[in-house]
Amino acid sequence: MSWTLPPAPIRALIRTGAEIALAELDDWLAELGEAALRGPNMAAVAVDPVLAASARRTIRSNVVQWASANVRDPGARVPADVADDPVRAVRDLVRRGLTESSLDAYRVGQAVVLRRWSTIAFSLTSDPGELRELLDFAHRSIGAFIDDTVEAVFAQVHRERANLTSGTQAERREVVTLLLDGSRLPRRRAEARLGYRLSGEHVAAIVWSDDRTSGPDDLDRAAEALAGESRPLTVVADSATRWLWLPAMPDTSRVTVAPSVRIALGTPASGLDGFRRSHWEALTTQRMLARLSASRQIATHDEIELVSLVTREPERAERFVKRTLGDLEHAPADVLDAVRAYLAEECNASRAAARLFTHRNTVVRRLARADELLPIPLADNVLRVGVALEITRWTP
Fold this sequence. Notes:
Globin-like, Arc Repressor Mutant, subunit A, 3 domains
């Protein structure tokens, strides 16, 4: 495809427009990320914190590549974006079994960028001829950049797929995917291929990081710490995620992981159905931690099940917390801890004091302070206060 540079005055406007785009980068990325993850065939990516974070990094890489190229050499054809982030994103999509249809997000992003560029163009000039050239340039340049990038990504998809069709991890991933999808693969055959017994009790875990500061070694060390002396089934789901199945619930209080690594656990369950169910529970835990931006590094399904159910509509959950807790929501930590301990000990102040390693009178004073802050006294609103406090445990 031939490429003609615009005239020098238009190139100067293009450079200015690209500089504006880079200055507004955060706003562009927020809109692009939301639009792309809502797009067709992106549901599986949007709900997965690792894949969603990878998609956002790819979007950033694309925008920076196009805008920076037009600052350096305005109006020239921008080469395809095959940097580390897009390539890593493709590898992860292929490992998860997602298809090329996920690349539709590029087209969604293209429409957003064209609209953003049109706004910039109208701010740069009111001359009809210059406007026409600026808009024509954007359609040609952005279209060619996306076409070239999608073509390069397609080629990468095929290479990754070829690389992932052999080897132990590929076989494990294939067998586990079949089992999770409900395939009638004979149990003994599956066990032989996995080197893992499917008839006993299982606790599924997901170890992941959506922060590029953590590498595979951090994830593997976390998986090893979680497994302890047991021999788990471990599957490399993607470059930033490990799926595990353990024979029993681990003692998470003894597990130390890198700051950006997180662990989600299902509940113990038996047999092949338990193998599946515990994994889906771990997935639910992972997604809830991501959805609520919770700071906890390790969480179990038992801990988050209630909060997961009552926060499906985050805005309504936030209003519920504010109505229920009133000023208690922002009370000192010792007051909140006293209320939580009191409720956990079935409204018994002595047992709450023992749990907190403090004197009963101290707990009573803190409960009295809580009543002053609550819209409705605690004794008249125990259930709702308990639920609201549980929500605040998992939200920033």
